[in-house]
Amino acid sequence: MELCQNRREIYQNIEYYDEFSTIIKYLLPLNEVIFDFFDKLKSCTRCYANLDYEFSEYRESNLAKMDILINGKVIDLFSTIVYKPNAYNRGLEIIKKLENIIPRYQFEIALQVALNNKIIARSNIKVVFKIYLLKTFNF
């Protein structure tokens, strides 16, 4: 229930079949279901919960386009439509994953999150320094 409450849910009802089986019905935006919902549901219920969903209706929402920039260039692959109040947290999640994936180079790499062409978060991948070992000769 806590997982759904964190994802813009509208609670409908709860049905008890027996002491071990319960059906909880929520209205959730499809965007919230697609982005990592099933994995988190399985994790927090130790794989006991199951998910079934069906389309209900279209509704207006407070959405915006979020872009991920690497060294100032927009990467279209990472562009997505997000709920504005959750954009900062969603962008930070993506940046943290990219920091672990992108290797370090001899120059700094800037990772930025832009919401409607305005930078809302930034992180850098630090420079790797090469250490040159000099052989010393003993005479």
Q: For the CA atoms, what is the radius of gyration?
A: 22 Å
Please summarize the sheet with the most strands: 4 strands, antiparallel
Number of domains: 2
CATH architecture of the largest domain: 2-Layer Sandwich
SSE series: HEEHHEEHEE
Number of strands: 6
The strand line-up of the biggest sheet is: 4-3-5-6
The level 1 CATH classification of the largest domain is: Alpha Beta
Fraction in beta strands: 25-35%
Q: Which stretches of 5+ consecutive residues score pLDDT under 50?
A: none
Termini separation: 75 Å
What is the helical fraction, as a range of percent? 10-25%
Q: What global shape is seen?
A: elongated
CATH topology of the largest domain: Alpha-Beta Plaits
Structural class: alpha+beta
Tell me, rounded to a whole number, the average pLDDT. 84
Q: What's the tally of helices?
A: 4
Give the CATH superfamily of the largest domain.
Elongation factor 4, C-terminal domain
